[in-house]
Structure formats: structure tokens, C-alpha cells
Amino acid sequence: MEALLGFKEESTDYDQLVISKPSSSASYSYKLVPWLSWDEWLFVDESLFSNSPDSVASALRRISAWRSRGCLPVVIEVTASIIEIQQKDPHFRKDQSNDALDNCRADQSSDASLSDEMLAMLYCMAIMRLVNGVVEKTRKKTEVSIAVAADAIGIPRTLIDIRHEGSHRELPALEVVRSASVKALDWLKYYYWEPQKKAIPFHGNETADIRTEIRSKFHELALCLRVKNTPLSLSSKVKEKRGSKKDLTKILKSLVGLYASFSSEVVSVLLEILLNAINISDSSKLLVNTQNGPSLHISLNEWKLVITKFSNKEPELLLALLNAALDMIETREAVLFETGGVCTSSDHRAEILQVEHLSSLFKWLVGNFEGLKPHLEKDSAPEIKVSLGEKTISKAILMELLRKCLVLSASANNQLLDSAVHLAQQTGDNYLLGKLNKLSSLVSSNLDVTEEYDSLKHSTNVFKNEDESISEAAKKLEMIKQRKMKSKVVKRTDGDARNTKRWVLAKSWNPCPIGMLLELLEKVSQLLGRKENWELNQCSGKREASSDLQLLDNRCVKKLRETEDGCVSDIEPVLSTEDVSGHLMIGGVWKKVGEEELLAIKSAVRIWPHTKKPAVRIGPHEKKKPACTM
Amino acid sequence: MASRSEPENPSPNIYIPPEWSEAADCIAYDSVTSPPPIAIVCGAKNCGKSTFSRYLLNILLQRYKKVGYLDTDVGQPEFSPPGFLSLTVVDEVTPDLTIPHLKTPERCLFFGDVSSKRNPTTYLNYIFALYDYYQKEYCLFDKSASPAKVGLPLVVNTPGWVKGVGYDILVDMLKYMAPTHAVKINISAESKNLPCGAFWLDEDHDGMLNLIEINSARQDSFNRSVLVQKDARLLRDVRIMAYFRQCFSSNLNITTIKELAHALASHPPYEVPISSIKIRHLHCQVPGSEIFYSLNATIVGLAVSSEGSKDLPWCAGLGIVRGIDTFKGLVYVITPVPRGTLEKVNLLLQGFVQIPTGLLQVQGCISPYMSANVLSAS
């Protein structure tokens, strides 16, 4: 074909493109849609047919945004047209409060009312577009008349007749087209809106159902892999039942599908499963050899296999897992920090245990990550080849993880510190590694000291050392930051360094699908500055705070608030609350500290609120709340 | 005629009939150089307008150092991605006539759709603006200042929409430009051709005009009905992908759509403050509160609103809005437009040039706008 060779080997690509569509059809065929998520679609569905003119107006606004994207299904377009016309029709308006309507659609209230004929014309046009537009999609052979084709998909006869009358004969009377518009909406609901709503996976179900589904899929996968890897030890019957390669790919595929729509759930369920496995392995140490044959219990090692399999399909999973684990530790520690002074109950101890387990899980994951990395690279080889940035990007992500890990390890978490060292190895930065090794030996010596003097309440030595290690960690972080800054500066001078730059290349970038943003960590100063920004937006945009689907804005606010709350609770109790004034909790116990020490610690502790959950600014990944919030 | 070395034929699949080379030679050599020849190529869809234009360009380049090329085919432009109207100054022969090559145009305007039918008035205004620019910059010289300076010849390629409104648009275009040469390519199906003669002129016209009527090459070489249907949408997608391939150095090994999609997903984008740019949809009313929902993950024209007249912002190229951060107030854009040019860009023009779905749909990197579970009835 002429002109197809726009870029190299395009002809083969062209085949791929064409073939890939039908072949991947089955249950996961993808279509370009104008909405960002099914939540957005559901919001429009709900508002469009609601009794509140405000809601209807907001749905119509969103549909005009969809229309501007150029891939709006004709059924939605026609539904919106009919509803918009009805909003202009006094017949439909009189039973609603006109005030509200006028408020929300100020533009239309001014031009008072349309003549009956104009209204009829509008209705008629919408109905003609409905019949023709929908029929065009379904009518395969042009020999079949429009009427026959329309009948075949159950379009009410009235609508078909109006199409005919309106195009070829007299314009039907307003009463006729008005009542037809109601029928048209009913048909559109029956033909599109309701079936589509049902076709949305897990629609209407609680998050719990989705989690159950994810959990069971993971278990299936684990068992499937177990059968596959222990060929003889198990009864062949079981093996036949599951474990075939077909099953495996099927389960994997459905997991990948789930991950596409519910990534945060998948990550949190997996984390929960792993944590559970650790808990059990921990407690089973006590009960020696209580094995009941090949039980339903799946060991950590088996889960490792599951993760390997799954992250081959979804390479970012491991990073997401690591991040989620750190988030969870952070949350728990914050809880400990708050309640620590008061209670020494079993709850408290359980929390501490959880942190321990999480930390060891993290360590375990990092270990796996290391093991998986060559694999990962092999699999994503083309990508790495493709973009020069790739390597530095993954390094940037590693650095962020490392930073977060270090911050958390400041509370004398040895496992995390070890993990940090591991992560540092991954970055291939020997200088950094050396520093970290020193730090880790320093901290471990501190820990010995801590244990020795644990009973002594006023051993200033202990927290001085703690202090040192914290500020040491802070210094390290500062250093890392500076190094990052330096490398940035070098990069900048590459390009022309003008002062007023409108267009700036993003400093660090994590690969993510087009239409989404993914960021790891941010500075608190920016966060605070941003709130005002948002308020400005709020004023100008006249958003209804109630519609929780405004995820472009509101999600982020929620996140922001969480973070702010977090920072308040992290610092203020230490500095201002009266009864604990002058005290600092170290190792779960409040200890008295002097002012200078406090200041030193404060400067180190301020690092805390810097850590922020990975925020997907625009995208379905963030639409569900993470399992644990602050 | 003039002694010139016959160019080797690096595109063996393209057959240039003698009639065509005569026509091209006539335009290039049987004309005065001042004013330079202005040739408009027109005819029905797929009759070979672009191929003839490319060929004519090469022939003209044997006599002239530089040749202007005004592309008015928004659906399948020669040197730019779809949706653009552009004036390109070409200074080197394109050896391979089969492939449309991307070139940086001298001036271009983003029409934002693949057919002029979306808004014929704007479409014509854009073309007139480009033509005026050509006239001003390359034809009207102060004779006393540089008598030796020769005007730039111009080749105008037109869209294949020659019936109904398309015909009216073509007539307006021809009237406005008053070309020295008009090349009409006819196909065997008479009914699809343009009317005979200088159909756009009033009876009492007395300007100089060479009307050259030639036949489609395909008819001769294959001896069958001429219209070879091309998958226009696919071609457009390929052009757009080739355009964004330019974001990466050519020695990177990106050969498949999949690799390109991956590379784009991991490519660090430009970030630009929302406050420092304007956003305009060319063909649609978008409520103020919905702009970002409308803009995310779409292709936009990167324009400079201060240059050109108010309604005609010169365009620097295309970008993909890969994400919007309403908090930081940043828009993230992927574009191959060089940094220096980009700095002037202060207007994002949204149109209906759709992002190829191949770029949104890669394993592990599926855009949220690619959705499963969509009812086939929709």
C-alpha cells in the first residue's frame, strides 16, 4: 500500500494492529470511550435521569465534554439531546421548581420560551437522529429498509413514523413528538443505559465483593501453581482438575483484568494475603509440626511464585506492593505514636507486632524484588532499549522508595534499614551504599545499647544516640536530595537555561498510561501552597462538592487533607500538648527531652509529612480508598 | 527541452506516465520566472493528486532552489500530520515518491479535523491566510531593492472532495489564488470528475492561465477503474504515530506501534502551567468546568496566539495531553516540537483529530480511556 510506510516496518505493524483487535476480543476487548472511568459513566447515568435539574445540568455538561472528545456513542448523544430539549419544554418544566432550573441553566431562562413549532422541530430532529444513528450501527445490509431494521432492535413504531413524517412530510405536532420523546428515552434506557450498567464489572457491589473476588483469584493462582510445581506428590485427580496451562493463563488474565480496573484493591488484597502468610508462619513456629498434609494454607514461598507470575504480566506491581507496605507501616507507626503514651494494652502490642511483620514482609519483598529484577529487565527489554530515560526513571523510583524506607527506619526499624541497604544496592550507587552501611552499623550498635538500658528511664545516652541516628538519617536524606538536585542542574544546563520558562520538561517521570499521572512523593510546602490553588478552582469552577465523581479535583483534596492531618498529629502532640510537653516517645515510651534536643529532633522529624501516598491525579487507580487511611 | 539528467527511479512502484512528465515540464520550464508559476493540482479522491504534486515539486526543484508547497488536504497532508493546513518551503528533491515525508512547515494552521466540512468558512480563511503569507514573503519583492531575487514557485495540493460543498470550496480557493497553472486530473468515471474547462472562472476572465488536463496514472497502468480505496483512518493513525515517533532519536530502535506506545508512556513530558496557556476547542462548546475532562489524553495543536491575526494563530505542531494535575495547575504534554519553538506556545487548540487507539492500548499500560465491557450496541 502506498504511503503506509510512514515509519519503518509499518506494514507488519499494520497487521498487528488489525489482528490484535478481534483476537483479544473475548471478554477484554477494549474500546475508546470518552469517560475516564465507569464511575464517571455511572455519575452521568444517575444524574441524567434524576429529578434534580442541577444534577441533570451537571450530567449534560459532562456529556458536552465527552462530545468534544469525539468518540461519544450516538445513544448517549441522543439521550442528552432529548433531555436537554425537555428541559427547554415548559411542559416538562412546570412540575419542577423553576427557580432551581433557572439557576442552573441561566442561559436558557433568558430566552424565555421557544415557539411550539421550534420545540417540535427540535424533538423531531433528535428522534430522527436517534432512529438513523442507531439503525446505521446495526443495519448490516443496506437493502433492508430503515423501518425494518429499526423494528428489529425494538425501536417503538412511533419513533420510526416520526422520522419518516419529519423528513418527508409535514412536521409532526408538538404533542406527538413530545410524548414520543418520553418513549424514546424509555427505549434508550432499555436498549443502552440499563444493559450497559449491568455490563460494568462489579457495578453496585461493595468493595468487599471485589476484594473477595481478587482474593479467590489469587488463591486459585497459588493452588494452580502448587499443583504444577509438585507433579508427583499430589493425587493426579487434583492435577487434572486444575493446574493446566490453560487454567493458569485464564486466571492470570482475569487477574490482569482486575488489576486494570481495581489496582489499589489488588495491591491491598495481596498485601493482606502476604501479611497473613507471615503471621501464620510466625505463629506456626510455636506449634511445631502441626502439619495436616498439603493444607489449604499457602506458604510464603508459594506466594512468591504467584507474585513472580503476576508481576511478569504487570511489572509495576512490585513497586506498588513495596509502596503499599511502606504506607501501611507509616500508618501503623503514626497510630502507635498517638496512642503510645497512654496504652500498653494488648492492642498496642498487636500493633507493634504488625509493624514488625510488615517490616519483615517489606524486607522479604525487597529481597524478592532483587531476585526478580533480572527477570524484570529481561521481560521489559524492549522498553528499556526504547527509552533512554527508562533506566534513570526506575532509579528515581527506587530512590523515592529508599527515601521513604529510610525515613521510616528512623524509628529504629532494623529490617527497614536492611531493606534500604538492599534498595541502595539496586540503585548501583556505591557511594550511597557505603554511607548506608555505615548508618546501619551505627544504628544497630545503638539498638544494642537500647536493649541494655531499656529499663532505665532517664538514660539520656539512649535518646542522644537515637537523636544522632535520626539526624544522621536526616543528613543522609539531605544528601540524597542534594545529589538529586545536582543531577537535575546538570540536566538543565544541557538545554538552554532561560529564566522564564513556560514549558519545562518533567523532572522525574514514572511510566504510566496516557491519560494518567503517577507521582510518588512530594514536599509539604508545595502541598500547602496548593490548597489555595484548589480553592480558587473551586470558586471559578462552581463545582458541587457533593458529587464525588469530580475526581480530577476532589480526590486530591482528600489526599491533601489526609496529609495535613497527618502532619498535625505527628508534630503537635510532641510540641504543644501540655501533659506530654517536654516528652518524646522513644520505642513506645514517653521520655523527657530537653529543648535543644527537641529542636534537633523537630528538624529531623519534619521529614515525616513529606511522605505522601502515591497519587494518581487523574485516573481510576485512585478512585477507591486505600485499605488503610490515616 | 532543457538538458537535465533524468533522475533515477527509486520508487519503482510509481509509474509516471509521459502525459504527467509533460505537464510537469510545462509548468517548470515553459513559464516565466517572474511572477513565478503557481500551480494548483485538483481532482477526485485517489486520482493521484499527491503523487503528481510530489513529482511536480521534484521537477520544479531542478530549476528553482526552493519551492513552496501549500497543502490544503487536511485529511492526508503531505508534510504534516492530519488536521493541519500548511505552507512548506522545500529545498531538496524527495527521491521516494511513495512515502509522504514529515517536514517542518514554514507556516501552519491547525484546523483540527480531517475534513473541511466541519467548518468550510474557517477552512477557507486559513488557506487564504497561508496564501497571503506566501505572497507577502515570497512573491512581492521590492523590485528596486533586489532585482535579482526570484519569486518562489508554489504547488498547491487540494483535497479530493469535489462535489457539493467541496466543489464550492475548491472554486473559492481557485478564485482567490488565481493560479498560473491549474492541473486537473481526470479519472475514467466521468461523473466523479470536475467539470471541463476553467470551471471556476467567470466568462469575461482575461488573466493568463494554463489549464492542463491529464488522466489518472492508475487508469493507464492497471487499465481498470481508478479508485483504489485506501483505509483513510488507518493512514491517518500511521501519520500521527510517525509524527510522535519524532519525540525519540532516530537511532532508538522503535519499529512497532507497541514499542512506540511504550516509549511514549514512559517519555518525560513537558509540564506547562495551566495559568500560562489558553485552551480552546476549535469545533465544540465546552463548559468551563469541563475543560480538563475534555482535554485529558487528547491530541492538541500547539499554537502561538500572538503571532498571526487573532483568529489565525500560527501553529508549532501537535502534542498529546498525557495528563493534567489540577492541583499543581500543570498540563503534561508530549510533543516532538523543539524546546525553543515550544517556549512561544501559549495556546492549546483542541479539535477532532483522534489519538490512535494503538497508542493507548499496550499491555501493562492501558489508558483509562480504553475501556473493556463496553456494550457493542453503543
UniProtKB/TrEMBL annotation, chain A:
<dbReference type="GO" id="GO:0030687">
    <property type="term" value="C:preribosome, large subunit precursor"/>
</dbReference>
<protein>
    <recommendedName>
        <fullName>Ribosomal biogenesis protein LAS1L</fullName>
    </recommendedName>
</protein>
<dbReference type="InterPro" id="IPR007174">
    <property type="entry name" value="Las1"/>
</dbReference>
<dbReference type="GO" id="GO:0000460">
    <property type="term" value="P:maturation of 5.8S rRNA"/>
</dbReference>
<dbReference type="GO" id="GO:0000470">
    <property type="term" value="P:maturation of LSU-rRNA"/>
</dbReference>
<dbReference type="GO" id="GO:0090730">
    <property type="term" value="C:Las1 complex"/>
</dbReference>
<dbReference type="GO" id="GO:0004519">
    <property type="term" value="F:endonuclease activity"/>
</dbReference>
<dbReference type="Pfam" id="PF04031">
    <property type="entry name" value="Las1"/>
</dbReference>
Automatic annotation (TrEMBL), chain B:
<keyword id="KW-0418">Kinase</keyword>
<comment type="similarity">
    <text>Belongs to the Clp1 family. NOL9/GRC3 subfamily.</text>
</comment>
<keyword id="KW-0698">rRNA processing</keyword>
<dbReference type="InterPro" id="IPR032319">
    <property type="entry name" value="CLP1_P"/>
</dbReference>
<feature type="domain" description="NOL9 C-terminal">
    <location>
        <begin position="266"/>
        <end position="356"/>
    </location>
</feature>
<dbReference type="Pfam" id="PF25467">
    <property type="entry name" value="NOL9_C"/>
</dbReference>
<dbReference type="InterPro" id="IPR018247">
    <property type="entry name" value="EF_Hand_1_Ca_BS"/>
</dbReference>
<dbReference type="GO" id="GO:0005524">
    <property type="term" value="F:ATP binding"/>
</dbReference>
<keyword id="KW-0547">Nucleotide-binding</keyword>
<dbReference type="GO" id="GO:0005730">
    <property type="term" value="C:nucleolus"/>
</dbReference>
<dbReference type="InterPro" id="IPR027417">
    <property type="entry name" value="P-loop_NTPase"/>
</dbReference>
<dbReference type="InterPro" id="IPR057570">
    <property type="entry name" value="NOL9_C"/>
</dbReference>
<dbReference type="GO" id="GO:0000448">
    <property type="term" value="P:cleavage in ITS2 between 5.8S rRNA and LSU-rRNA of tricistronic rRNA transcript (SSU-rRNA, 5.8S rRNA, LSU-rRNA)"/>
</dbReference>
<dbReference type="InterPro" id="IPR045116">
    <property type="entry name" value="Clp1/Grc3"/>
</dbReference>
<protein>
    <submittedName>
        <fullName>Polynucleotide 5-hydroxyl-kinase NOL9</fullName>
    </submittedName>
</protein>
<keyword id="KW-0539">Nucleus</keyword>
<dbReference type="Pfam" id="PF16575">
    <property type="entry name" value="CLP1_P"/>
</dbReference>
<keyword id="KW-0067">ATP-binding</keyword>
<dbReference type="GO" id="GO:0051731">
    <property type="term" value="F:polynucleotide 5'-hydroxyl-kinase activity"/>
</dbReference>
<keyword id="KW-0808">Transferase</keyword>
<feature type="domain" description="Clp1 P-loop">
    <location>
        <begin position="43"/>
        <end position="244"/>
    </location>
</feature>
